[in-house]
């Protein structure tokens, strides 16, 4: 019997990419839906900044535990079931977070989100590798990340397009639960599409989840430059993600701007990333010098938190986001957030692909899994510290100077980032691996 099946038509690949990216959109939206309601959580249930920091950390603790298990579930159940199950877990988590005003239940909701959201990202990456390997893989990853970041931006924009919901802390989170439903629908559509494709066409093999398990015995074999990148990854994400978590509340309390305007301003970060990440990716693919670009990004980030704290606000400038809204925002805040957005585009666009230039292809999955694991540790600890600093120094609208210690802490992290970025750059000048083509690891 002839079992030959043709390759699926191109349109299938893009339809699969669209479904998986939509699932990621919902995932990022639900994660970021908590940050525009920080002030409401402080007012009504009366949570402290430290408690809100813990809501962020709970996600990372869950993600850490799940990442340690590696891609087992994806390997065992396949990407179709795995994507749907993780999307359903995210939906359950979104509903649990909003179900009651009890802190422990909200905390459990955010923990459950970590259980579903990070493996959903891994499952989505596996699907892209299955469908795009040997084709437009980097481009597909870029599109996927941009659509995911649109989820983050949309959560910020909800302060404008869904402003009537922001009279209490729960309604915006019910909206987030509905968006989690979009993820579930997208996961089902992906399942149906891929099932049909498998019946008619030859679909690529699942990249073995074993590749993503961390082989602790061989960690010492990773080159020194890889560890510099991991260190930069830890401090970079431990700065940017917690800053984003508290940003909308910080703009409201310390700079006296409305929630809508604060949401638009905060969205500049993911919006800049949506536009600039692929452009920086193209630039660096052309000119190389990855170590230099990472060092430049780290240097630009260093003064931003001090600038936002001590520089005069300056004149108001017009900020317009098409289809969403417009507002007048202080020039200093605009410049700082735009520059942070540029760094948030440059460093990830260079850092993640750089690993492929340093590590043998056969151990790339392991290298990425370890890097993500370390990322979660830094990202888990910092919101706790920032929350505690804000509480201890009485940060709030009547004492905006109380936010300064937190900003100095971000600056300290950024300085550590500069140190590792420069170590990497110098190391790179001597070894020049980050200027060469990816390690094929035959
Ligand atoms: N809410 C977004 C969480 C994304 C976590 C993920 N592990 C990650 O770091 N992705 C890369 C990125 O730059 O977003």
From TrEMBL:
Mode of membrane association: Multi-pass membrane protein
Catalytic activity: L-lysyl-L-alpha-amino acid(out) = L-lysyl-L-alpha-amino acid(in); L-histidyl-glycine(out) = L-histidyl-glycine(in); L-aspartyl-L-lysine(out) = L-aspartyl-L-lysine(in); L-histidyl-L-alpha-amino acid(out) = L-histidyl-L-alpha-amino acid(in)
Cellular component terms (Gene Ontology): lysosomal membrane
Transmembrane regions listed in the UniProt entry: 12-31, 52-74, 80-99, 173-193, 224-243, 263-284, 291-311, 317-347, 367-387, 407-425
Residues annotated as domain Major facilitator superfamily (MFS) profile: 16-429
Annotated PROSITE patterns: MFS
GO molecular function: transmembrane transporter activity
Gene3D superfamilies registered for this protein in UniProt: MFS general substrate transporter like domains
Task of the protein: Lysosomal dipeptide uniporter that selectively exports lysine, arginine or histidine-containing dipeptides with a net positive charge from the lysosome lumen into the cytosol. Could play a role in a specific type of protein O-glycosylation indirectly regulating macrophages migration and tissue invasion. Also essential for liver homeostasis.
The protein's name: Lysosomal dipeptide transporter MFSD1
Organism (species): Aliidiomarina maris
């Amino acid at each position: 019997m002839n079992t030959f099946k043709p390759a699926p038509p191109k349109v299938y690949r893009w339809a699969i990419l669209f479904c998986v990216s939509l699932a990621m959109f919902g995932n990022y939206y639900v994660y970021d839906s908590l940050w525009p309601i920080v002030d409401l959580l402080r007012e009504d249930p009366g949570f402290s900044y430290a408690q809100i920091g813990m809501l962020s950390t709970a996600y990372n603790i869950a993600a850490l535990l799940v990442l340690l298990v590696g891609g087992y579930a994806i390997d065992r159940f396949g990407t179709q079931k795995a994507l749907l199950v993780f999307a359903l877990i995210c939906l359950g988590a979104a509903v649990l977070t909003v179900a009651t005003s009890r802190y422990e239940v909200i905390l459990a909701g955010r923990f459950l989100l970590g259980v579903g959201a990070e493996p959903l990202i891994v499952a989505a990456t596996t699907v892209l590798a299955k469908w795009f390997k040997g084709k437009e893989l980097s481009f597909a990853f870029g599109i996927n990340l941009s659509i995911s970041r649109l989820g983050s931006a949309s959560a910020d924009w909800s302060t404008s397009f869904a402003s009537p919901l922001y009279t209490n802390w729960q309604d915006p989170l019910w909206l987030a639960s509905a968006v989690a439903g979009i993820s579930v629908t997208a996961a089902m559509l992906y399942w149906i599409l891929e099932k049909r494709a498998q019946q008619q066409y030859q679909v690529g093999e699942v990249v073995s989840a074993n590749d993503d398990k961390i082989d602790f015995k061989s960690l010492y074999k990773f080159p020194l430059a890889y560890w510099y990148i991991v260190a930069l990854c830890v401090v970079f994400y431990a700065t940017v993600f917690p800053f984003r978590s508290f940003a909308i509340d910080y703009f409201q309390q310390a700079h006296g701007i409305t929630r809508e305007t604060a949401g638009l301003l905060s969205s500049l970060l993911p919006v800049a990333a949506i536009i600039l990440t692929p452009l920086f990716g193209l630039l660096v693919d052309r000119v190389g010098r990855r170590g230099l670009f990472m060092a430049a990004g780290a240097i630009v980030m260093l003064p931003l938190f001090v600038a936002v704290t001590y520089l005069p606000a300056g004149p108001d400038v017009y900020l317009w986001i098409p289809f969403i809204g417009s507002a007048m925002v202080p020039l200093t805040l605009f410049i700082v957030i735009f520059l942070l957005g540029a760094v948030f585009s440059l460093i990830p666009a260079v850092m993640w692909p750089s690993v492929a230039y340093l590590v043998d292809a056969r151990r790339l999955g392991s290298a990425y899994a370890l890097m993500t694991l370390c990322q979660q540790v830094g990202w888990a600890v910092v919101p706790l510290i920032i929350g505690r600093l804000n509480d201890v120094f009485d940060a709030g609208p009547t004492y905006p100077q109380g936010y300064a210690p937190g900003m100095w802490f971000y600056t300290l992290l950024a300085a550590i980032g500069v140190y590792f970025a420069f170590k990497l750059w110098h190391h790179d000048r001597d070894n020049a691996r980050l200027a060469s083509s990816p390690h094929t690891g035959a």
